[in-house]
Amino acid sequence: MRNLVVDSGGCVGLGGPCPPPDADVLFLCTNSSERRLFAATASGELICYSLDSLKEEWRVEVHPPGIDAERVTSLAYALDLDAVCLSTASGQLVLVHPASREVQEVGSVDGGVVAMEWSPDGEVLAMVTGTGSLLVMSQEWDALSEVQLLPGGGGGDGWAPGPGELDDASLTWRGDGKYFATSVRTPPGGDGKCARSIKVWDRSTFELHSTAEAADRVGAPLAWQPNGRHLYAVQDASPGGANPTDATAAPGQHRVLLFERNGLLHTGFDLPAVAARGPDSVAQRVSVLSWSPDSELLAVLLAPAGGDTDGGEAGWSLQLWHRSNWHWYLKQGRRYGRPPCLVWDDTASGTLHVVSGGGYERLAFVWDRCVSDRGTAVVVDGDALLLTPLAHAKVPPPMCSARARLPAPAAAVAISSSHTCEDERIAVATADGALCLFLSVEDDLWEETLEEEQEARGGQAGPRGAAAAAALEPWVPRVESVVESVSAGTAEGGAPQPCARLAGGRAVRALAWLAPTRLLALASPSARLGDDPAAGDLLFELELLGPPEHEAATGSAVSSPPWWGARGTRAAQRGPARAGFRVVALVAHGTQAGCAVLHGDGGRVSTYTAHAPAAAAAAAAAPLRGGGGGGVVAPAGAGDTLPMLCPWVAAVPLLPRTSSTKQHPLLIGLSESGALFWGASLVAAGVTSFAVRTGGAGGPALLYTTRKSHLYTVFLAQLASGSYAHVELTAAGQAAAAAAARAAAKATGSAEQLAAVQLEHAQAHALGASGMQVHTRGERRDDDMRAAMHVAMRPSAATAAARDVVVRAVEQGSVLVAAPKDGVTIVLQMPRGNLEGVSPRALVLAAVACALRKRDYAAAWEMCTTHRVDLNLLADLRWPQLLDDLPLLVKAVPRPTDLCDLLFALRPGSVVAPGGVYASIAGLSADADGGEGVEAAGSTRAGGGGGADVPRQPPSDVPLEKKVDALCEGLRAAVEASARGGDAYVTVVATCHARCDARRLDGALACVKAAKEEGLAAAAAGDGKKAAAKDAVADAALKHLLLHVEADELYRVALGMYELPLAYMVASASPRDPGEYLDQLARFRSVGDRHLRHHAIDVHLGRWAPALASLYAAGEAQHFAACLKLATEKGLLRSLLALCGPVSAAAAAGTTDDDAPSCSARVLDAYGDVLVGERKHEDAAVAYVGARQYAKALQAYRDAGSWRSVFVMAARLKQSPAETHTLAVSVAQELAFAQPAAAAQVLLDHVRDVDSAVALLAGPAREWRLAAHACAAARRPDLLDSVVAPGAAAAAAGLLSDCREAVERLGKYGARLAEVRGKRAAMEAVFAADAEEGVGGQRDDDAASDINSLMTGMSMYTDNTHVGNTVASSSRGPSTQGGRKANKKPKAGKAKGGKIRQGSPQEEAALVELLTKTVPSADQLSESGQLTELLVTLGHFDDARTLQRELGAWLAAHTATAADLRAHPVPGAGAPGSSGAGGGGAAPAAAGGAQPEWKWAALREP
Questions:
Q1: For the whole prediction, is pTM greater than 0.85?
Q2: Number of alpha helices (DSSP H) and beta strands (DSSP E) in the chain
């Protein structure tokens, strides 16, 4: 889709005396490193010019003194020799040294030299002599090989060429220098005509590699493509007849042939035919074939066939050809009146040096695209234009939608923009100086324009293919010049004067549409016409005028006048106006009609304002930016200047007025280095192509591709406000963006949003690995297709946050071609030449946001579904407004199944919240038609659904967490209330039931059942049509449910509804094997009793509670045993007890006359057995009591240790006193070990054994008050002295010893802890000093000695052994020499841990833990209170005071230690008493809660 444009050019006179007319330049060569151009003239002179100043530096005669001038046959610059090498017709080989201007004859070749060329590396020189031999020489002028090219050796029996017969021989090297080819004339055949022989030679052996396939009329020019792909030769036209090689070739049409290296003829292409002067002659002949160094352009020079040096009628033609997709395009054509000489620049690809008639042209070609803002691409192909409206069809070249015919090859093309002209129009400047115009019938409908033109000519439009084969005919207005009278800087218009050529015969490089009837042409200065190159390029303004009878009729500011294309129309040409600099790019002004923008050297930018009438009309048409005088060039502001020269520019369109939008520049430019500029500001580097969308949702946008194969989308309003910054996508950037997304989700405080981000990230990895998403049993499982669609429509949040909506990956080498206005699809051209339309996510989201803002749900839905946008965006972007607009949504969405797709696409959370997939949608630009940004959810801006104005209601107050349920309920209500509801929307209602969070699949199947039953009722009534319709509705709803819900799950739900026909319907619609369910359904149907059938279904589904209820309902008497067994096995005894009903009071008390246990009693008895098995003895006892099983209840209470209830059950069983006594002795024995106090109470109450009871209380029970009370109650003071007193004395002594040991332990370990703390503090000070001085700082010996001694005592803080002066080691080594430490088995009986190792790293924490736990327990405090009270009773007052004092000292020491621990916590450990290090100890009861009575006032110290 590219066109070749001239970046710079113009005919400039070479400095110094020009060669006379009869001494034209024959050959050119360049030395790009020194910026020199060497020209060899026909008079035998070598002239050196400076490429910078184009001034002559020197000239020399190449023939030796005293010898007549010789014709130069070859010219080349030998870089290694630093000299210009020439060959002459007489055989001289001459070197001219530029530094000394010395002419050195290095040798002479017999027979003369007719062709010579150095190898690409400059080491080998190959030449063809006049005798027909091939001579190869080295750089030292040693002959390497000499081979005869003519058959027979060129002498003797062979053919000997006459003088000048081999002058047209040619020689060419392949780009890598491995092969070269020669083309010489062969002996005449039987018809007396000479053919040509093309041979390929191997440089390594200088032997013949291959001979080209024979072809008729092969010409002399020969060129090998530098990339080595093909060898190119010319087949001359056949005078007055067709070309036998190509039957489609017209008479007088030359053909370029392509040969493989092996000599096989590959293919070829035809040059445009030129009318000949006579029937047996041709108008032109091909004289030169020359490839550009980058193998992109083939220059073909055609000379007059008669050898006229003045060019004659045909003239000299230069054609530039390019191949793409195996189609050859003629991209440029130029005409010359004198023989031109050309050479490609060896360093600047695409630059051609041409000298003709003393004038020099430096043609710098660049590739550009001629594409309108509507998306119409214009491709130049010689004398034809290929037109393709890319907004309607992506037709890659060489195909096209419409073809336009030109009278000559195009030199410059321009297509109008939408703000300049209402309908598209194309202007073309041809190589022969004509102006051709084309007009579309409407907008960009060029295919329809061609059809209408065909019909107007009287032909049939026919099919599209036939219309495409035809061509649009141009309107060629007669160019007339308007003589301007210039006075004091003002211009006054004059009468049009006839003018034969466009731009006065100068080469037109660019065109631009200023208005519907006004054009601006850019032309290069011409030395032949006396132009001064220093004044810059020239601008010519063309105003289209109608015939005299239509001069009064004019069109509007953007439409065409009625006389467009009529016979007699003219083009009034004004100018020239001087640009003042070399113009590289010319574009129409983006906001001002009647103006153009010029860009050139150094990044300069200027504006051209058209002639006053046009400017006035433009100003009246639209109040746009800018202004200025008529027909003048004015420099732009500093902010409009581009920082460097940019060959590719685009005008900035009109932007919406907002508070953040600044004054925007005139141009967007792209430099050759890949720098993209917004005026003077750099947008991005490494850019390969760009395009500007001039309007649409979101406003004008800039799109560009980078070398890393990424496509970026940025709205111009962002550039104007300065809020956009280009960010490269790297792996680190993606990880950071993913982390930022998770952090943003956490910051919002929404657990659902964070869960959604994590879920999407996990799903992306899972789906990327397997392509299928599988949930656990009980959840929905999606098939492969749905999983793939889910990933495509909803990428992971991490990936979306990393790439953002403004970036997408494209194929490597893709370039932007067009960004049609008002659309979201842009066109990329792949390296292979094919076209692809892609929709950048930013443009799509902006369009969705615009449609939702207008409440145009039809457009929003179409955009989302067409471009695979997550449908949650419809709800989340303006939540909860969609709840109130659901009737509009139902009306806008075309099909019910689409609403079902929306329901199943709903997900928790918001896709536009921070961390969501489309979180960056809030940063998109304002909409072009409203200038407002994307509204937040709950906005009250009025709009219309589907373009209609609908009253706006306040949004519903529903939180986003309930989005799925709210939308399901609301959509179901909207569908049921809609006039479009009915049978078609049964699927939607069923989906609403199935999609809500509660998953009401039974409700969904109920909808299917209702529709099916209506169909059966209609069939029974004889209405077959209605029955078929209802059946179809039910089947469609069921099939849609099966797309999103697993078939087994639906089948189980249908069975759970006890609807066997519905279950059969589900199973038959699923892909299940019929054998899997037919037998099963038959077995269920065979069960006659309804309750038993329900029981069988529930058992099959594993629903045990309903199965129990159904079985009980089938009959208590018949099935109670089965019910009891089922309830016992499945843990449903409580449910069965509820089914059996309440237990009567008489039955519970056991006062009924019926000895048979009731159903409830049987259930309770069984439940008691179950509870006993679960070791819940008290619960089991209660169940046994309810079942009147008192013996079982007694045993259960006995097992539970509830001795009081045991004797209650004994009373229920009416045991005798003896039995009760025996039971009491047994119970006391059982309780003596675990509950000695309870055992003593049983002995006192039921056995009357005071001695044993007191022994238990004063012994293991340690209940001193109860023991004293028992002695007093039994009148046994002897027991107090003999049993209680000795036990109390021993207990007091033990407690007193514990108190003193604890106080001693607190002191000892407290002192060690203080020592450890001091050493840690000293080490921290040393490390802090090291940190301040730097690691490895110098210390004196004393300091080192102190540190060594300190480290010796602080080895507990490192795992390494301290050696020498090293403070700390950075790595760990083995603790023993010789390798790995031996494994030692621990000694038997020695527990691990429990010992504080002095000097270990954990010593401080262990000390803190030990000190924290050294505290009296609550039991010790309580026992102390009882002991001191008893000691006072027994008369030991001082002993009691001592015990209380020692216990108080223990508590005081612990309190002080705890305060010290809290003041000096261990680094990295928890506070003392917590669960960290030093925690876990039991705090004394005095620290909080009820204080035990242990401290008597009478015993306190004074």
A1: no
A2: 40, 59
